[in-house]
Specification:
The chain is of the alpha/beta class. 43% of the residues lie in helices and 22% in strands. The strands form 4 sheets. It has a 5-stranded mixed sheet, with helices on both faces. A 3-stranded antiparallel sheet has the order 10-7-11. It has a two-stranded antiparallel sheet with strand order 1-2. Keywords: DNA-binding, Transcription, Transcription regulation.
Amino acid sequence: MARINLDMDVLRTFVTAQDLGGFNRAAAHLGRSQSAISQQMRKLEDQAGQPVFQREGRGTILTEQGERLLSYARRILELNDETLEAVNGFSVSGSVRFGLPGDFSESWLPTLLGIFKRAHPGVLIEVFVERNGLLFEQLDQGALDFVLAFGGGGRPDALSLGTLPTVWIGPSPDITLPLAPKVPIDLALYGNPCRFRRIGLELLDKAGTPWRLTFTSRSLQGLWAAAGAGLGVTFRTPVGLPNHLSVLPDRPGLPRGPGIEVCLHDGCRPLSPARKEFRDAVMETTREHLRPIRL
């Protein structure tokens, strides 16, 4: 039986359509006509030798074979892109000093950094995990090249990547957390200065909710441990939330928080080729991961 080579361009269109939620959106995103996209999908089914789509109402959904093909298509495209980056990566050299808060260091960014390092082995990456204020100090002093931070702070170098909700976080539902009227809410928060601490306390005070600070930490791991043990609820974004913790549902006494912007900062300094590649990779990956976070 002769081997058939799947068309990479067709696979990329297929994955894009599934990610964006339809062929019309994929056509607009890729700058192609609807008929061109439909022709590519017919070619995909011919190459696969199996039905990939089936009608449902006025639209289409993936068949079981289509779901399996989508999973493989993602892996093929990732390997293709990583291969090309690795082949070209040796032409880029230099160093990148990157600062970020603990929330991101425990989520998707370590994976991104690993992929970037493999694709650009000639680039030395140094990562510093700290709180916003200290990161900005190091950036302004020239000790860091980039900072990923919560809030733009009115800085001229802020590149907005998206907005995250702010939420109250406590133990999993199997641990009872009493929130009785007029009984102070136990809180686990960072020490001052801290944006989340300030916003959370302002929300409670505005709602007339009594509170008491029972746990103060300088590390995110400390807050997660305290919240998981039931020592107090904390106030942050849901990024990097451990499995043993949960976002507390809306209830009297815990007002919903505002959205908070996530920005990448470069200190308004010229970028070397290595730093430009790194900036673009962080911006693209962060935007992709922030987009589906909704509460």
